[in-house]
Amino acid sequence: MTKTDRFQASICIPSTALRHCNATNLSQATNIAYQIARAASIYNVMEVIVLDIPHQVPRSKSKEQAPALQGNQKKFFSSKEYEEETEQKSDKSRDAVILATLLQYFVTPPYLVKHVFKPSDRAFLKHAAKLPKITTLPFMTANTIGRFKEGLAIPKHTPKVHKKGKKLSAQKKLKVTKFVNVGSAKPLTLNEQEVPVHVRVTVDTLQKKVVSPHEAYNHGGNSLPGYLVRYAQSISSVYTELCVTDGYTQTAIVDADNYFLKDCGQEIPMYQPKKAESLLLLIGNWQDFERNAVHDPNVSSVVDVIDSRIPVPYATRIEDAALISLTKMFDNTDR
């Protein structure tokens, strides 16, 4: 899809959704992620972005309240400029890792769990495995008999490659493959196609080819392709590392998990739905988004990227705000 010809939504959730006051243990964290995953699946959200929120604010930037939105001051990003100016951090917060892992688990077929998640990450899934599967996702139920299946591209028959008498590493030996693990006794072999190793794909088991999720599952009923999970270190990277082809046409903030300040973003206009757009929802505490912006050299405030707001009841939790805002949005949109 080269242009946005239908309504589609992405949501950005701060890692503070799992802060200690919201989730004191892994079981509670799992339930928060599960509710977000269900809401995203019900409304066919394209991607769920986990935004890492730092615990400390550097002194180099002002700690004052974010300025009100005045006129058309929205910030636009250049990927090249971002790559040059943004300093990359190597460490992800534990909350961000847990949230992203859980969100990914809820859209991963059971037969791929051991292949998708490292043993260290599977430790976070002990409570998630006990929860009901999300039935709006066709590949989570009755996948053994369907024509279309989710699979993981796997290496097989790795050739022995030598360069001037030296063996190359396994990673360099084989970067593409025609073998896909679809949960059967033997891998499926693609016809005249090769895909990158360790990439999740949707395959047509009859024609033995990779297809798009929408081609496979968008045939009515409860056939929805599920969302992509993406980690973002900064506000900037939400927009420069996106999965949406033409970018977001509008960003709306949903101020949630806010138990103290009632007037954040009141100057920002209310969201007006459109028939064909790619909308990004920032769902979380306004101040948490500001804390991330303070670390980002490409923005001065979260206000720089916001076009509109979607109100939810005061002191609504993030997982509840996700469902409320998505419901409001889709109820007022001609899909």
TrEMBL record:
InterPro entries: Alpha/beta_knot_MTases (IPR029028), Put_MeTrfase-C9orf114-like (IPR003750), tRNA_m1G_MTases_N (IPR029026)
Coiled coil ranges: none
Pfam families per UniProt: Methyltrn_RNA_3
Family: Belongs to the class IV-like SAM-binding methyltransferase superfamily.
Name of the protein in its database record: Uncharacterized protein
Organism per entry: Candidozyma auris
Taxonomic lineage of the native organism: Eukaryota, Fungi, Dikarya, Ascomycota, Saccharomycotina
